[in-house]
Design brief:
The chain is mostly beta strands. It has one helix at residues 2-19; strands at 22-31, 41-50, 54-63, 66-80, 83-92, 95-108, 111-121, 125-141, 144-156, 161-176, 184-197, 201-213.
């Protein structure tokens, strides 16, 4: 079943990559080590997204000479009317998850709500109830429009409760690509906050640069 999830994610990712209309975000930092003999510490984070259908995230970090990485790939496709199938592979320190979701979408007043079941592989096989909520706000603040995206995902059974929250605050920048200023592309300064507990609670806060890929 794990191989099936990986194949599903690969096919979904390939289809959306060929479709275009994606976004790419990244952040990078370099820090002096505590000891001059140690290698330079750094952190690099990248993220590809296609609306709510595809999310590929990768973080590589070295702190005090110790390397750590985290990544996930998430994809979802509609199968019949408002029913969706989604898959996720998530790896991090003390996290090694495969998720396969079957869910029903309820759209009301701009809120995207998903209810369903998930097959969750962690230490053992655990089916869980699933609840997802998504909402986007687009606001114009003087000459600096910004977008606020909220996301939460809850997984629960009788024994365990998992959760994940994401907040994205994106300030739009128009970058000209011609001297006459008649051609441009959209870029964003994005504040990305992530909180999650899949057996180990962690949170991240990053300031990223994001570009739209058309």
């Amino acid at each position: 079943m794990k191989k099936l999830i990986l194949v599903f994610l690969l096919v979904t990712s390939t289809c959306y990559l060929m479709a275009g209309g994606m976004s790419f975000a990244f952040s990078e930092s370099i820090r002096n080590p505590q000891l001059e003999s140690d290698p330079v510490d750094y952190q690099i984070t990248t993220q590809f997204k296609f609306n709510d259908a595809l999310d590929v995230y990768y973080l590589q970090e070295r702190t005090n000479g110790l390397n750590e990485r985290e990544y996930w790939i998430y994809g979802q496709v509609p199968v019949y009317r408002d029913f969706y199938v989604a898959g996720k592979r998530h790896y991090a320190k003390q996290v090694d998850l495969y998720l396969l979701d079957l869910k029903y979408r309820i759209e009301k007043d701009g809120w995207g709500t998903y209810l369903g079941m998930t097959n969750c592989w962690d230490t053992k096989y655990h089916p869980k109830l699933l609840f997802e909520e998504r909402k986007s706000f687009n606001l114009d603040f003087f000459i600096c429009p910004f977008e606020l995206n909220l996301y939460t995902k809850l997984l629960s059974d009788i024994k365990e409760f998992y959760h994940e929250e994401q907040v994205e605050l994106k300030f739009k920048l128009i970058v000209p690509t011609a001297l006459k200023m008649n051609k441009y592309f959209n870029a964003y300064v994005k504040l990305f906050i992530l909180s999650k507990d899949y057996g180990m609670y962690r949170w991240q806060q990053k300031l990223m640069i994001e570009f739209e890929l058309k």
